Amino acid sequence: MMSLVSQIGFAHFTQPSSLSSPSIAPFRHNPCSSMSSSSSWTPYEDKDGKKSKKVWIWTQNKQVMTAAVERGWNTFIFPSNLPQLANDWSSIAVICPLFLGEGEILDAQNKRVATVFDVSTPEELEGLRPEDEHAENIVVNLLDWQVIPAENIIAAFQNSQKTVFAISDNTSEAQIFLEALEHGLDGIVLKVEDVEPVLELKEYFDRRTEENNVLSLTKATVTNIQVAGMGDRVCVDLCSLMRPGEGLLVGSFARGLFLVHSECLESNYIASRPFRVNAGPVHAYVAVPGGRTSYLSELKSGKEVIVVDQQGRQRIAIVGRVKIESRPLILVEAKTESDDQTISILLQNAETVALVFPGQGNKQLKSAVPVTSLKLGDEVLLRIQGGARHTGIEIQEFIVEK
């Protein structure tokens, strides 16, 4: 399909004053009579569950429009002098068209729905007074892109009752705006003429939404403990600190992953390292975002893994470093009550390596047991899932693993 950019010149952000009051054609579909109820809301919420993040798309590319609508984003920004383009798109998809004027964004009824601020200097950022504006939405266009000004925007608007957007032309910038100072801005105006950033941004939201889902963990009874000799084991050092009860899901078979505790607990043998999980040998699977698994040997700096606690709460963490060293191993096998299948894991045979105990209601009992103290009949936590995998993705096929 030929891109509309090749047919129609793309309008610059700052429009001539003559375009501030566009003449807008009637629309066959107008689902945005109330911007606050627009389906441009994404399912992703911040860690406190208080705010959803909004996405508006600024494009003249029909393929970008199609990809965005298919992913649940239907609010689009058009140059004020191109109402026909918005009308044409409204005839093929249910969209919410908005129009860019001088320092403002209007809806199809010429009502201001957002005020636009160009920011290129610290003084301009310092002078922003969002609460003085009548529009419920604020769109910030950071002309001199840098990370620190992005954080300054978050800080400046943290107590604002407005919905604050930032304009971004790539996913990396968008992610910084959405995460800076932990909570980020309320939304993103994604200004692109290529489909790939739309796909990347949706994948980003899917990963973050996954964090809000609680994983189902299963109790399993230890049935065998056996010294196994030497092997190459992997220590995974994260860019995040872990708390008692947290660790990584690791196992010899993808069908059952043990919750391996971090080294956050105090020990007589070695200093606490709350960023580290001594996870197992190189062949083992580890849970990563998207319902996938990765081999421990494939992890490296910058990769993402899932940190899970005793209750199944999960969060995404970035791998900072991986250490592979030859160490003595121990084999641990366990079975669940509902399944006679044996689930196994190999771990370094050391006092600092531990498996997570099942939680006892709200009681904070011992969170983990070192593999050197593990006994037959002890209960540990597993994640039971489909065993057949292709490049880490679960698939439906017959498989036998021993």
UniProtKB/TrEMBL annotation:
Record-level GO BP terms: amino acid biosynthetic process; aromatic amino acid family biosynthetic process
Key word Amino-acid biosynthesis present: yes
Residue ranges constituting the 3-dehydroquinate synthase N-terminal domain according to the UniProt record: 53-205
Keyword Amino-acid biosynthesis: yes
Example of a GO MF term: oxidoreductase activity
Positions of the 3-dehydroquinate synthase C-terminal domain: 220-402
Protein name: 3-dehydroquinate synthase
Lineage: Eukaryota, Viridiplantae, Streptophyta, Embryophyta, Tracheophyta
